[in-house]
Design goal:
Helices cover 36% and strands 12% of the residues. With 155 residues, it is α/β, with parallel strands linked by helices. The protein has a domain of 102 residues: Oxidized Rhodanese, domain 1 (3-Layer(aba) Sandwich). It has a five-stranded parallel sheet.
């Protein structure tokens, strides 16, 4: 493992790096503003289905890794903002790379769902069987030894 060099870097290289980074990433505040202003974007959640169902950015489409090849729901006419779990999760970056290779304009949400929630922004849940309260059926009558004895004495 190498060590980090703390010597000054080249400001021109740093400028180019950060210009590129800003062109291909969005902060949670940027995304919230874009959603509030109805900007022409597609928000793409690439996390597992169970996590998407528990809570996702409002209006996001779900496109898990197994379906990346389908590009279902992506747009070539709109910016696709891709997110996963957190800053240390690389799923969104991998998805963004794959979608860009397929010709889709993309940006990655910095910090993922964790950063979105840390900002206190709204989270939408998927209504599904797991989210509905379980139907409570009346308990079936209990049959004890006395009931059984009474029932058999009537024959």
């Amino acid at each position: 493992m190498g060590t980090v060099s703390w010597r000054p870097n080249e400001p021109e290289k740093a400028k180019k790096y950060f210009e590129k980074k800003l062109e291909f990433t969005a902060s949670p505040a940027d995304l919230k503003r874009a959603i509030d202003e109805n900007q022409p974007i597609v928000v793409v959640d690439v996390r597992m289905k169970e996590d998407f169902d528990k809570g996702h950015i409002p209006g996001a489409i779900h496109l898990p890794q197994a379906k990346w090849g389908s590009a279902e729901g992506l747009s070539k006419d709109r910016l696709n903002i891709v997110y996963c779990y957190s800053q240390t999760c690389h799923l969104a970056a991998q998805a963004a790379l794959r979608f860009a290779e397929m010709g889709y304009p993309v940006r990655e949400l910095e910090g993922g769902m964790k950063a979105w929630q840390q900002h206190g922004y709204e989270v939408e849940k998927t209504e599904g069987p797991a989210d509905r309260p379980k139907k409570k059926w009346p308990e079936s009558p209990r049959v004890d030894q006395f009931t059984t004895a009474r029932m058999s004495s009537h024959h």
